[in-house]
DNA sequence: TTGTATGCGTTATCAC
DNA sequence: GTGATAACGCATACAA
């Protein structure tokens, strides 16, 4: 019992060859008698196939990787919730990589594809460098990138139209009569940071509002720094009447600051986030947010990867998820819970 | 470039034997000239070692598993946030298992230990069956269980004194002058459900309060069902003046219901949760919660497992994390943010 | 220091 | 149907 049983052990106990053991274990046609002997020996010895040996032979690990910046962000969590069961049902295990938004780390993960410990990878690079693209091209296993990627990149791609998303939010705030619409963004050298920055300027222009650089503050994508950035903005633009945040976490930080500053949300300052995480309905007031379809993107990515694993030679595909504005009380006072008409 | 390079390929290109290649790659003493040739060939060919072959030889996968009921619960997220970097730094990858609180699934994971695709496992069983204990005893790789486990189980164990935690909360509510203290719990056949149920009764008794079965409602551990259970409770006990919830998610559901019912928190009903998740500070009002040290438990589990991997023969250890009451506005009106004295 | 040869546990291809 | 036997890619004991 203390020795790790292998097919050789089973073969000895059952008095057959290892080939027969392997056949029985893999459901290939065998005489009933042989099958019985093998199965009972296997059960008795507590045999479990060794995955390393199996992988070496089969050239498949039955694992897929998921690489994101930080497991602490609920957006990624929403994706994992979709991805995990899909792969589990398909017989794959999920290997997690939290890269801390570090490019070198992401490249490491891509290099890891060559080790063949995963059969495929879903990745969300926060910054997309030439090195990423080189590795994509050289990769020996299928990759799905969530987030925009150049047209000719040899990877499947799930994207969301964050430009349209930002526009939805800005138009909504404008429609509420707000004219001093601030913007708290994450780093401009990140894929989402850059896209949302451009989209913000564009949306203002489309509405005939002037673009005022003083209305933007840049921090990172987390609550604490979001709070600091919002505080800076509030300090410099006292007559701010609306605030768009590049993600929900930033918006939560902004809500903290506005509350401490005694500004009423939404009456004084309307606040909108992006990602529409679970937490939006928990915040006070509940947060208006642009859904970028995290769950859908996760599901799409998983399905693309699964398909590609079975259909290796097909051309790269792009799936786009449409953003959707979810209006809650942080911009619309009539939606404050508990204050509806009975 | 299209053929997967192996040490054999490198050996050919460098004009040396595969043994030399292996030595160079593993930093064993070699002539400088040989080393140079091998390294340059390896780089040129884009060689990456095959992890299956390496695992087969070394009998180590450099992966560790983390099995929890549901990746959607922020408690587990808090743990992963601690666990992941610790193992990453130690050269291990993290394989995730979301078992849906399904015992059969958990047993599968334990059986998977035999496949040797992970070198160790951190597990949080929601229910602990005899089958679990059998598998623990038979396991061929170290296991750390988060959550209580019998004394003689051959696994490391990280626990929290949830009994003391419940008592802290009940005493706090009692100290606020509340006497009708309801309890919304998760399933009684789960480890935490059973423990918290007993602890609740005990704490009441210690305070000389009568135990009224009507004051308890059982649902599951999620927000939606937490809301329904709280609604049932409110319906049957109109004079409820305090509510202890078995975890934060349940408490969030309860807050939703109380708000819709027009009950002021904490003035009419004081609400406390357990786990002290990140989300507690996001809720409105911010949630008083019993911290069960999720981060500490995650860290402790990771460190125990890492230690056991290097020190295979040592006896099982138990680490206990003390609960701590974190008082916020959902029980203490003086702490409502934005209403402090300036 | 280097090369040859063997084994890790499987699967798969042969003859029998 | 079944049993030898050869890979899979790597690490290493041993011989040179």
Write up this protein:
The structure is a homodimer of 342-residue chains. Chain A is of the alpha/beta class. Chain A folds into three domains: 7-49, 434 Repressor (Amino-terminal Domain); 63-161 and 294-323, Rossmann fold, CATH 3.40.50; 162-291 and 326-335, Response regulator (Rossmann fold, 3-Layer(aba) Sandwich). Chain A is built from twelve helices and twelve strands. Chain A has a six-stranded parallel sheet with strand order 2-1-3-4-5-11, with helices on both faces. In chain A, helix 5 (74-89) runs parallel beside helix 12 (294-310). At the A-B interface, helix 4, helix 5, strand 2 and helix 11 of A face helix 4, helix 5, strand 2 and helix 11 of B. Chain B binds a DNA duplex (16 and 16 nucleotides) through helix 2 and helix 4.
Task: Give descriptors for this structure.
342 residues; 434 Repressor (Amino-terminal Domain); Rossmann fold; 3 domains; 12 helices; 12 strands; 43% helix; DNA-binding; transcription regulation (chains A, B)
Over all CA atoms, what is the radius of gyration of chain A? 26 Å
| Count of individual beta strands of chain A | 12
Oligomer: homodimer
The average pLDDT of chain A is 95
Share of residues in helices of chain A = 40-55%
The CATH H-level superfamily of the largest domain in chain A is Response regulator
Strand order of the largest sheet of chain A: 2-1-3-4-5-11
Largest interface: A-B, 47 and 46 residues
- Shape of chain A from CA axes? elongated
Strand content of chain A: 15-25%
CATH topology name of the largest domain in chain A, in short, is Rossmann fold
How many individual domains of chain A? 3
Q: N-to-C terminal Cα separation of chain A, in Å?
A: 68 Å
Which sheet architecture does the biggest sheet of chain A show?
Answer: 6 strands, parallel
Keywords (chains A, B): DNA-binding, Transcription, Transcription regulation
Organism (chains A, B): Sphaerisporangium album
GO molecular function (chains A, B): DNA-binding transcription factor activity; transcription cis-regulatory region binding
Protein name (chains A, B): LacI family transcriptional regulator
